[in-house]
Amino acid sequence: xxxxxxxxxxxxxxxxxxxxxxxxxxxxxxxxxxxxxxxxxxxxxxxxxxxxxxxxxxxxxxxxxxxxxxxxxxxxxxxxxxxxxxxxxxxxxxxxxxxxxxxxxxxxxxxxxxxxxxxxxxxxxxxxxxxxxxxxxxxxxxxxxxxxxxxxxxxxxxxxxxxxxxxxxxxxxxxxxxxxxxxxxxxxxxxxxxxxxxxxxxxxxxxxxxxxxxxxxxxxxxxxxxxxxxxxxxxxxxxxxxxxxxxxxxxxxxxxxxxxxxxxxxxxxxxxxxxxxxxxxxxxxxxxxxxxxxxxxxxxxxxxxxxxxxxxxxxxxxxxxxxxxxxxxxxxxxxxxxxxxxxxxxxxxxxxxxxxxxxxxxxxxxxxxxxxxxxxxxxxxxxxxxx
Length: 387
Ligand SMILES: Cc1cc2nc3c(=O)[nH]c(=O)nc-3n(C[C@H](O)[C@H](O)[C@H](O)COP(=O)(O)O)c2cc1C
Fold this sequence. Notes:
The chain is an alpha/beta fold and 387 residues long. The protein has helices at 7-17, 20-26, 34-45, 82-85, 89-100, 114-119, 135-147, 166-171, 181-188, 191-198, 218-228, 235-243, 257-265, 287-298, 313-321, 331-362; strands at 47-48, 63-65, 68-70, 74-76, 105-106, 126-130, 152-156, 249-254, 270-273, 303-306, 326-329, 376-377. It has one domain (7-377): Alpha-Beta Barrel (TIM Barrel).
């Protein structure tokens, strides 16, 4: 039995246990994957200041995000198709987050529906919406999130057109997988996954099939998604969507200070500085490099959250020290989910919490709320001088 000490351990088990098609779906970025890679390598360029002889007893990572108190400044990011990484994946991940005391964000493109996740959890979760053309569907989706008592809406604004991930095309990604000879051969070696899938009814996009007009099965879904995203999205439409929800609204996918200011103008309560985990515009800045200029632009006026590239508690600490109120983890929890279901997501959260707590202590801080830029050594040219 492998002793799990880091997120990378979970990734290795995940790779062995989940069909290649779904592993590749998570573990790739768009085109050359430059941005995907730099999301993690740029974190390593920032160093931490070791301090000694500071009182490190009685530490706390508890913090506030969107007016609520949480165990640490980490939320589970919206990730599509979690129910293909592990049977009933969204329910499993939501339960792990709830028990740990961090927010769970359900993706529009989930396998388990909003209602299903609400039924199997106790506490409210966040719901992510894509900006889709079908206004009627959008209104009903947001009304469903309200009925399910979701506590915040995350509007993803960086996917008007979809980035290309070569492997998804080559693998013929679909949910559930099509029974091609290669897929059958692969699944035969992933017996845990197959057993779980055989025992669940949840194998289609639960928020869409039976809810979007004309989508009653997997075949009609693929033509719907190809058409669904609103390529003409503008700030006026974002404001309209913002006004459809009377609770906190988070705009996710901001990478530029000018866009951050616009987000503030349309009344967003928070933004997530994000490049979608390197899955959209390849060649864009890594998220951590983009964070400082966005903090300068709006950091004192709204909550700025951060994602893309977090693989450890040290990464969380660095983002927090640069000013982020909270962070989101995507792949780091997906590895846990694919490796070991709910237990694996809990393990991922435990690993990150331990790394965060220990690193914070060794930087001479005992309360996450006292962590600031002072604990970091950031290269002078970190943000880069771009013309
Ligand atoms: C497999 C996968 C599916 C994703 N699906 C969605 C989604 O449905 N909606 C969304 O807003 N973001 C989605 N994202 C982006 C994540 O919310 C998040 O921005 C990203 O994973 C952060 O980068 P990280 O994986 O390096 O932590 C997805 C990411 C991955 C890896």
